[in-house]
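Job type: complex structure
Entries:
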Amino acid sequence: MTKVWKLQDTEELLANSSNGSFSCITIQTFIMMPLNASSPSQPLFIMAAFLGVVICGTIFYQTNQPVSETRIVLNPYSSVDWSSSGHYKAALHVHTLQSDGYHMLEDVVHAYRDAGFTILAITDHDWNYPNARVGWGHVPEEEASPYPKEPKPENFPANTTWPWTDYGGPAPEAVDMVGIEAAELTFRHHINSYFTDYGVWYERTGSEAPYGGIVNEENVEIWEDDQLFDIRESGGIAILDHPGLSQSHGFWDRKPLYWYIERFNTHSPDYLIGMEVTNTDRTADLQLRENYDEGLWDQLLAHFMPERPVWGFGTDDMHRLDDVRDSHTVFLLDEHTEEAVRDAMKTGQFYFTKSTLRLNFFDDKMSLFPSIESIFVDNDAGSISIEAGNYDTIHWISAPESADPINDYKTSDQPWPLGTIVHEGETIHYRDVQGINNYLRAEIIREEEGELYRTFTNPFGLINTD
Ligand SMILES: [Zn+2]
Ligand SMILES: [Zn+2]
């Protein structure tokens, strides 16, 4: 809770700006006053007035100079010591046999550990009973999970898969991992909840699909806002999952842009911290959904930055370990602890990746993503520089040209204009580049053997008071 978001910086800058103007007007009024009064020695007053304009002009120039141009007021990496902070690989959206995944928790934990992950959140669906895949005939009966054992958790079947030791897994610290209690809330727009045991079980009414009508015990409709407020009350944090999931999924209902704006307006960045930008769920058409999710992120950043950041997350939404498209999140931490991860989630102190490569966790082969060695923001020089490795190019992206829809959000996989690439290269001089609005983000990209590897930074917030 030390550093939540940095509106303070913006407020400080704006406060400095009005102080500057105030002192100028005060001096000007004071010096000009004698001129209006009838006076025997007018030349002296004219000289005083002239001096006043000079002094005033100087003060105005000095006090207002910093805010009369574009400045970075939100830098998610401002606390990172690039020479000492660790890069911790995180999987924040992962399923097991405890909902509709294919594997025991223990196998999942070890597969991720072996692939170099040191932060893991198991996000089993709250609306699946354990062994859903056994029931659907996808996993043989003899591989079914025997967990949870009797007595069942209080909120079964909407319980979280936590603690891991109750589900046949190791304690996170025994495998040198930070484990996060989590769930994928699935009755409405999918929401990943973290650091809470919250989960809901509503009897579905009238339809196979959750959107067909979800009610609580009193027959009152339950909506996303109810769930998000409950997450806040239970001390958790949340992100919105895979917005562009195809409408052809029976359990899914795509939302218009204004729906997302309303959610991020209604719920503070203290607990609704962001969205999945690169969910590579194997059932979705990766290429098509890309423009939907990334376009939505840029639209939201254009709307909300820098006052209300919407952090971007990358996940693989793993169900099968032998069929994954690599996408994950990397935290920049001084300490490998749950508290440090939670703080970093809220301040955006992480980056995320996505490749087109299809992975099998049982192979050794892993993606080699462009690495980030350092990010340096220099407001005096007006620049952001990224030192990276294993890359071909760096794209700098700012707000889309328009917020007007270009296609129907239900049927199109690109309903909104995408963010604008304003510059390419390691360093951007943001005062000299045209087309930059309220934020900038970078993508570090490499293409190799027909596969695309992308590393995404979180957004930097800018203000320009010209
Ligand atoms: Zn989902
Ligand atoms: Zn999922």
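Summary: Confidence is low (pLDDT under 50) at residues 1-67. DSSP finds eight helices and 18 strands in the chain.
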